[in-house]
Design goal:
46% helix, globular, binds iron/sulfur cluster
Length: 120
């Protein structure tokens, strides 16, 4: 089965280095990333499914509101030129990152708790 990933996860998970909210959450990310193809999800995805912050299908993170997260998804899909439901090759997204990362970084990474994990 092709895993479903929401917009911002299609970008951020390229920087995954084994850190996350719980052991289950981290293990699930490793499993999802074994796949070469992903389907673009609208809202909570197969990563959120194992996240302790998911409540009633919405992100209840203390760091961001559900609306903030959805705005990140929208921007990510715009930068990647993708739409909900599309199936994408993980490698093709990786190849697009150099051309979009400056903009993504300036919009979202500056105050993200994972900034140090991603960029050292
Ligand atoms: S913090 Fe929110 S967006 Fe991130 S994985 Fe958890 S539920 Fe999903």
């Amino acid at each position: 089965m092709i895993p479903k990933l929401r917009g911002h996860h299609l970008i951020c998970l390229h920087f995954f280095k084994g850190e996350g909210y719980s052991e289950d959450f981290i293990k699930n990310i490793y499993n999802v990333l074994l796949n070469q193809k992903m389907q673009v999800a609208d809202g909570a995805d197969d990563i959120c499914a194992k996240c302790p912050h998911l409540e009633e299908g919405k992100c209840a993170s203390s760091e961001y509101s559900n609306e903030d997260i959805k705005a990140q998804d929208t921007e990510a899909l715009m930068l990647l030129k993708l739409e909900t439901g599309m199936v994408v090759e993980w490698e093709n997204i990786a190849a697009m990152l150099p051309s979009i990362l400056d903009e993504w970084n300036s919009l979202f990474c500056y105050d993200c708790g994972y900034r140090k994990v991603c960029f050292g």
